[in-house]
Specification:
Elements lengths: L10 H7 L2 H5 L7 E5 L2 E9 L3 H13 L17 E3 L6 H19 L10 E10 L7 E4 L5 E6 L4 E3 L2 E3 L4 E3 L5 E6 L6 E3 L2 E4 L1 E10 L9 H8 L1
Antiparallel strand pairs: 1-2, 2-10, 3-4, 4-13, 5-11, 6-10, 6-13, 7-12, 8-9, 8-11
């Protein structure tokens, strides 16, 4: 059952649904960098949301009408997904991105001199099922860095696989994977064999990246 206040953004929402760690601890105690044979990878695991958030988000995702889901937004590597702005959740999630998630990414990648307001993003909810789309081939993301937040774990197999590092990650519900999006971090979603897998993806790009004078819209069009 979805809590009545799940769609009402205020300080109580942050206190109620965001994991305790990023609200109370320094980033170097939260960011858990994945290592491969003792070598750091620039791929991080981090807690973002708590169990109550995941229960509500799972219930909300399950309640969405089938026609809500799209299958062709990304022409090269489409997922079964829906933009958060189309299900009345963009404002709340953007607040968490600005105040919790992007500051952690800035610390993780030493993006000195920037704040969360220097970035824009695309947020969408993804669904995998054995009967529809059960996997996603290896690909790069249209982002400087990407957050992949797990919502549930009541499915079989699946997970996130980074090709070059041969790293398989299955984050706990409410925890996220933070990784560079474009070159060198090709990844895919391994197939699930039962259940349904939900996650929220955020493609994050700088407002003024290497495309001086370009608009946000032209940047997206150039990299899609």
């Amino acid at each position: 059952m979805i809590q009545e206040d799940f769609f009402t953004l205020n300080q109580n929402w942050i206190n109620k649904y965001v994991h305790t760690a990023p609200k109370t601890s320094p980033s170097d105690l939260i960011l858990d960098e994945v290592e491969k044979m003792g070598v750091k990878t620039n791929i991080f695991l981090l807690p973002i949301f708590n169990e109550l958030f995941c229960l509500n988000m799972r219930a909300y995702a399950d309640s969405l009408p089938e026609e809500t889901w799209t299958t062709n937004r990304h022409p090269s590597y489409p997922t079964t997904d829906v933009l958060l702005k189309d299900i009345n959740f963009e404002d709340i999630y953007s607040e968490v991105l600005h105040n919790v998630m992007i500051p952690l990414a800035i610390d993780a990648y030493d993006l000195d001199g920037t704040t969360s307001k220097d970035y824009f993003f695309e947020n969408f909810l993804v669904r995998y099922t054995p009967e529809t789309q059960n996997h996603l081939p290896f690909h790069h993301d249209s982002s400087l860095f990407t957050f992949n937040v797990s919502i549930n774990d009541d499915f079989t197999d699946g997970g996130l696989l980074f090709k070059n590092n041969n790293i398989h990650i299955q984050p706990k519900p409410g925890h996220g994977v933070l990784a560079p999006g474009m070159i060198g971090y090709k990844h895919g979603a391994k197939p699930i064999s039962s259940g349904v897998r939900y996650m929220i993806i955020s493609f994050v790009m700088p407002q003024k990246p290497f495309f001086r004078g370009e608009t946000k819209e032209s940047v997206w069009n150039a990299i899609k």
